[in-house]
Amino acid sequence: MSDKRRIFIGDIQGCREELEQLLEKVAFDPAADELHPAGDLVNRGPDSLGTLRLLKSLNAGGVLGNHDLHLLALNAGRREPSRRDTFSDVMKADDCEELISWLAARPFARGWRDILCVHAGLNPKWPDPVEEHLSGLNPHEPDELAEFVTHVRYCMKDGRRPESNTPTPEAPFQPWYIFTPLREAEDRTIVFGHWSARGLIERPKLRGLDTGCVWGGSLTAWIAEEDRIVSVAARRAYQEIS
What we know:
38% of the residues are buried. The N and C termini lie far apart (43 Å). By secondary structure, the protein is an alpha/beta fold. The strands form three sheets. Strands 3-4-7-9-8 form a five-stranded mixed β-sheet. Strands 2-1-10-11 form a four-stranded mixed β-sheet, covered by helices on one side. The radius of gyration is 17 Å and the shape is globular. It contains seven helices and eleven strands.
C-alpha cells in the first residue's frame, strides 16, 4: 500500500472556496497525499468550473455522483437543464471538453484493501468486490447499477428501493447501510456522500461525509491514515432546502 495519506471529501458541489480552505486545514500536499472526493464535485454551488480545474490540477481521484452524471448528460445534449443547475460556466469554458473527459474518467466505485468509496451506497445483493462489479459501466450511458450507486438512500435487504425517500419510507425499507452486515465478503470501511440530511456518519466500517456545504452546512474530510475528521464551515447557504 502507498505511504500517502488518503483524504476523502464529502459532496463539494462547486464550493471551491471551501474546498481550498479545507485543503489548507488538512495541510494537503500533492506529493504526499491522495485526494478522493466522494462524488458530486459539481452543481448547486457557486463555482463548478473552478472546482473541476482545481481537482484536476491536484490529480484527484474519487468517484462519480449523480450531479456529475447530470453534467455529463447535459453536456452531451441527452438531458435538459434544471432551473437549479449552476454549472453553465463549465460548458462555456474553453477547456470544457478536457474537464468533461477528466470527470467522466472517475469510476463509480474506488477500492483499496481496507476502504471502498462510492457516492451514495451499495446494493446488498451486489457481488464483491463491488468496484469490479461496477467497472464496466459507461458514465455517458448510465444504467440501473449506476442509478443505484449514485442515488440510493433507503432500500430493502433484497436491494429494492422505495418510490420516494420522502416522507421516510416505512419498514422493511431501511437506510442502505443497515444491510452492510449482509455483505459477508466485504469488511472494508465504506466511504460515501450524498445524504446531507443525515449529516456526518461515523460508525464502525462506515464514514458518511456529506455535511451539506452547499446548503450552508460544512465541507468535511476524513483522513484515513489518521482516522481523523476535519471540517470547514460553508461561507453561506448557496441553495435553500426545498
